[in-house]
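Course assignment 3, question 2. Fill in each field.
Student: A.L.
Task: Predict the tertiary structure for the chain below.
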Amino acid sequence: MAKVNFQELLDAGVHFGHLKRKWNPNMAPYIFMERNGIHIIDLYKTEAKLEEASNAIKQIAKSGRRVLFVATKKQAKELVSQTVKKVNMPYVTERWPGGMLTNFSTIRKAVRKMSSIDKMMTQNTYLKLSKREKLQITRERAKLEKNLGSISDMSRIPAALFIVDINKEKIAVAEARKLNIPVFAMVDTNTDPTLVDFAIPANDDASKSIALIVGTIVNAIAEGLNERRMAREKQDAEDKEAEIEAQEIKDKSEALKQAEEQADAEAEKGGKDDTKVQKLRDEKPETARPRRTRKTVSKTKKN
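Answer field:
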């Protein structure tokens, strides 16, 4: 996995925090110094935390679970949506619908409603509606698509959340904490890093900073998905090889069985022939050989 070095973080402006008067004391361990009334984030700690978060989120993706990205800030909307589409993960870039996690069944009903509208628009009944009714349905469909279109294929609660600004997305953070869903987040100097599981100290206002951090996380997810695909292909190859080997063993055992059956049949046939011969011998005993008669020669006595 490609690591982000110190210079890349510095060039992207990740180190710029908020004004000193707006800071959160819990961010003190991640602040390097203060300059001109602005806190400077310690990029060495950012580098370490980013690597830790990348490794954790990679394992989540490798296990086949999904990560929901949340970024409703103006400077992060399009950037996050374009980046996350590469790995086919759900995202929320418009208003966070309250109860999206804690009342997920209701959100799924809204998604199903959007699907039913799509189905209805392909039928003849839609053509028979008035112009006003068609306009209402189209507007409702556009509203649902805007708010829920990016999560339409999310059939279950995500395994983790990645949030750009936890102050702006405090409802999402609260819902995730209530359901014990791990949260990965960019935390600036005005946020509380203790509210999330994997805090990445970084500037969450600059588009370059957001692009770098989100891009690194997405690359980690892509690598996890790739490893999962390779592991699945390897497992399929091993299963196929095992199946071929099992088939070969089965064929050999069947051939051996047939050979044994054939040998038994031949032995049984040979046994029957021997029995038949013996039976014929028993039924027809051998006739005794006629004895030759000896001629008697009379001896004359010489005078």
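Instructor remarks: The two ends are 142 Å apart (CA to CA). Confidence is low (pLDDT under 50) at residues 299-303.
Grade: pending
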